[in-house]
Structure formats: C-alpha cells, structure tokens
Amino acid sequence: MTQSSFYLGYFGLTERPFTLVPDPEFIYWSPQHRRAYAVLEFGVLSHAPITMLTGEVGAGKTTLLQNLLGQMEDDVTVGLVSNAQGSRGELLQWVLNALDIPFDADDAYVQHFQALQDFLISEYARGKRVVLVFDEAQNVSREGLEELRMLININSNKDELVQLILVGQPELRDMVRHPSMSQLAQRISSSFHLNRMNAEATQAYIRHRMKVAGADTDIFTTGACTLIHGVTGGVPRLVNQLCDFALLYCWTEEVSKTITALVVQSVIDDGVFFCERSYDSEAHA
Description:
- This protein is of the alpha/beta class.
- It has two domains: 3-19 and 197-284, no CATH class; 31-194, P-loop containing nucleotide triphosphate hydrolases (Rossmann fold, 3-Layer(aba) Sandwich), CATH 3.40.50.300.
- It contains twelve helices and seven strands.
- The chain has helices at 7-11, 31-45, 61-70, 90-98, 109-125, 142-151, 170-177, 182-186, 199-212, 222-232, 236-253, 261-269; strands spanning 50-55, 76-82, 129-135, 155-156, 159-160, 162-168, 188-194.
- It has a five-stranded parallel β-sheet with strand order 2-3-6-1-7, sandwiched between helices.
- Residues 278-285 have low confidence and may be disordered.
- Pfam families: AAA_22.
- Residues 47-190 form the AAA+ ATPase domain.
- This is AAA family ATPase.
- InterPro entries: AAA+_ATPase, AAA_22, ExeA_AAA_ATPase_DNA-bind, P-loop_NTPase.
C-alpha cells in the first residue's frame, strides 16, 4: 500500500502528521517547550557542568534534544548515549563508544579513564569542547550517576573539558533529589521539567501538526480535541497515537473529512487505543 492510497490524499496531507518518530520539523513550541529548549541551550552556551531535562514518557524530550543537537556549533564534540545501563566501568565504555574512542574491553578501568582523559585534553587543545548527552538517563543507577559526576572533574585550569546533559523521566529527578546525590545536584546548573499539555495546548498542538503536514483547514473539531486531551492527559506521544487512529477511522468511513468527538470515541470504544482515564464524550460531540 502506497502513501497515496492511505488517508493522506483523503485529507490533502503531504505526510503523516502523527508518527511516533521524533521529528524536529513537527515541534510545537508551546511556552513550556520554549522554556525547556532555552534551558538546554543556555546550559550548553554557559558551559554548565550538568544540565538536566525531565518529563513524562512522550512529553517531547527527545524531539527537543534532537533539535538541540542539530544546532550544535562546529567547536562542540557531541557524544550521545541512549538507554545506558550497567555497573561501574561499563558506563565509561558507553561514553568511549559514543565519542568513537578506541578501547579494549578487557583493559582495566583506569586505562579506559585515561583514554577518555587523553581525548578530552586533545579536543581542548584543538579549541573544541565535549558535550556528553545521556538520553533515558533514569536507567543509570545512582552509582552510575556518581561516576558521571566524577567525569566533570576532569579539567584544565579553570576550564571544564566536558559537559553533561541528562535527559530522562521523572524518576531521574527523584534520584537526583536523594540526599546521597547532593554532590551531583550541586553541579546541575540548568534544569527543567516538562509537564503534560493542558487542553488549550493540546488543541494547538494537534492543529499545528496537521498544518505542517499540509492541512489547510481545521480537520479536528474543538470537541474532538477536548476529548483527545481528556483521554491522553495531554501527553504528546499518546495524542499522536489517538489522532493517527482518528484519521484512519475517518478515512475508512468516507462520510466526512471532519474529525469530531464521535469519531474519536469510536476509536476508544473499539479498544485500539488504551485510554488513561474515562471521559464523558457526549458533552463534547
């Protein structure tokens, strides 16, 4: 099946507006997403030792992060680590891999640490600084977070040779707030927590993504948007899932090109989308 035979042509769209793959082109810059991005950017530009961004699953953290990485200047060397796990020493190997630093897995920890330190010093000598980004950092243990804190102690005179960006779910924020993590918390210069979207932001988010995908009219009614917010709690990833199914249902019925709360409710009633909460849709049809 080609995209032209899918719902795209029916709604006059050029691409699917609600895929689950993070795409910076579809970023909806809500006030809190603008603030979150500003904090990330400030952390990099101000040479903050550690910058932290947390939020619910699907809140848009990774999309913001990818947009940030796409804007990095040539004088920044970036190492991206996703879903890192493991005991002491293994985390350092994740870092070496992310920076493309050759190493022998059988070498001792001190040799791996020396390889990283040599790399950081060589980058500094070239006028470059290193930013290590940990996505899904809530999977790193407290011991691992402490190991990361030790990395930022590698410095040259007054200049820190490496910065950390920690991105993760709310559990990461809870871990950092633990009394045993006080030394780490003190090194976090910039931090932001992404909350769920409210009803108004959810409607603006839906219409923004539809417009980017080629829609020239408001296909989702206000009632549909209100219902979508009610059952997703304003989590962007869940909003995407429900909207995608709503477009599919509306296309297969071929009755109208407007998605009302009744169409959304049909998706919910069929059980193809898992609702976070029950919602009275009749008042919003």
